[in-house]
Design a protein that fits this description.
Low-confidence stretches: 250-254
Largest sheet: 6 strands, parallel
Order of helices and strands: HEHHHHHEHEEEHEHEEH
CATH topology of the largest domain: Rossmann fold
Mean pLDDT: 92
Shape: elongated
Number of domains: 2
CATH class of the largest domain: Alpha Beta
Helix content: 25-40%
Length: 254
């Protein structure tokens, strides 16, 4: 309780200037809504595969149907899931303090967007979106919605395959998303880190960047993470448990 009260006080002191609060969310946030983490999704039929076989360009080129089917199963799980109290607390906070909160997520689902944070910065892409495996050579480029059905769908003109719009092993993060996330980390007064192990880079490095630029760091996670040492306050709890308590008190009079 003492840690929570101290974190509330820091959030209140940060004020309402644009970008004062940068929030970084990870897989634990979505796990509370029933979306398994990447590793947990490698269960059942998929447990016998190496992760790189299902989440790399090489794996997709070798077995496109297998990879497409795995992502189709994961997409169905995302569509069934609903935003939890943590997602709603962040969205409510953004509505109460227009411009104050910049949300950066490592998650590829759309739960933040459905809760109300439509402008969340997606570091690892969007699992519900498709893009061409290869850059289309045609001008104008072939349209992905016009792809012919299949597992995976393909272009009827050039044969290009559709792939999920996520960042795979060996691929760089979208440059514009990473640049926006770094700018937000360096400009914020408080960085709130929720539901991440801190093991995935360069996303984990945003926390150190924020601290180096003078931000106070608050971590919300039920278990220890690899970046706990970067935090000024660590709150042991889940997003759905802690964020409503933490963020509601940043509004004067609540």
């Amino acid at each position: 309780m003492q840690q929570l009260q101290a974190a509330r006080a820091i959030l209140q002191a940060a004020g309402g200037r644009p970008g004062a609060l940068c929030v970084l969310t990870g897989a634990g946030m979505s796990a509370e809504s029933g979306i398994p983490t990447f590793r947990d999704a490698l269960s059942g039929l998929w447990a016998r595969f190496d992760p790189a076989e299902l989440a790399s360009e090489e794996g997709f080129r070798a077995h496109p149907q297998r990879v497409w089917d795995w992502y189709a199963e994961r997409r169905e799980g995302v569509r069934r899931a609903q935003p939890n109290a943590g997602h709603h607390a962040l969205a409510d906070h953004a509505r109460r303090w227009p411009g104050r909160l910049v949300l950066v997520t490592q998650n590829v689902d759309d739960l933040h967007q459905r809760a109300g944070n439509a402008d969340a910065i997606r570091l690892h892409g969007d699992i519900l979106a498709d893009r061409w495996l290869q850059t289309c050579p045609r001008r104008p480029a072939c349209s992905t919605p016009d792809a012919r059905p299949g597992r995976p769908p393909h272009c009827g003109v050039c044969g290009n395959l559709l792939r999920p719009g996520v960042v795979w092993f060996g691929e760089e993060l979208p440059p514009s998303a990473l640049a926006a996330a770094r700018s937000a980390a360096e400009a914020c007064t408080v960085m709130l880190v929720v539901g991440t192990s801190g093991a995935v880079w360069p996303a984990a490095g945003l926390v150190g960047q924020a601290r180096q630029h003078g931000a106070k760091v608050i971590i919300v996670n039920p278990a220890a993470s690899e970046i706990d040492d970067e935090a000024h306050w660590v709150l042991r709890g889940t997003a759905a448990q802690a964020l409503p308590l933490l963020l509601d008190d940043t509004v004067p009079g609540v």
